[in-house]
Design goal:
The structure is a single chain. The protein is globular and about 50 Å long. A hairpin with a 6-residue loop joins strand 4 and strand 5 (about 180-185). The chain folds into 3 domains: about 10-50; about 65-165, GMP Synthetase, Chain A, domain 3 (2-Layer Sandwich); about 170-215, no CATH class. The strands form 2 sheets. It has a 3-stranded mixed beta sheet, covered by helices on one side. The protein is built from 8 helices and 5 strands. The protein is an alpha+beta fold. The chain has helices at about 10-45, 50, 65-70, 80-90, 105-110, 135-150, 195-200, 205-210; strands at about 115-120, 125-130, 155-160, 170-175, 180-185. Keywords: Signal.
Amino acid sequence: MSSTIPTATYIATLLLLFQSFSASFIVNAFATRQSTMSKTFAFFQQNPSMVSSNRSPTTLYNVYDDWRSDAVVDTMVLDPENIELCLEEFIDSNYGQQMFGKHDRPASVGITGEIYFVEQHGPEVILALSGKFWHRRETVLGRAAMWLNARMPEITDVNVEDPNELLDYEEIIDDMTGEVLYAEDKRAPDFNGDRETMEYQGIDPDVRGPFPPGVLGSGGSMINPV
């Protein structure tokens, strides 16, 4: 007995059934995915500790630290308010907590350094440095300048009003003779000797900062033995 060829009506019926099945499958799959995502989101809301349980102990704390890690940051318009905001981001960052005296740990070892906004002249920003820094003062200004420019690309220059603010030593001059009597160290104390050791070994102390990383961070040393 010979086979019969499906009629056009039969073929059309099969196509409609297939389309209906496909649409139903897609809708059900999407609904299942949405339900799973909702349950997952609800779980982490109820168990917030699970979100950070696998985070590295070097997790970054604010937008400045993130930028140092991936060099990506949102930009903003150049104005005095935003300059102040960006300086606060810099000062209060994890990095800034090693540099500025407003934080307890640096203050505990004699670091009193501060940086603040003075004025803006078009694309030029004037800052001021005061107090004692463990880092070189040029490093402090340079880090701030790079951050301000990353956040506000309109900035072309970041300077201090008085060039002497960038000197780590102040010459004490005899008023009568004009001779230099001695150079006063404007830096914060080398509280654990690491700064001098790194300089002796040809290492830039500012790259590491005053506090060594890791378990010895509370004041121990991680310098290569001499």
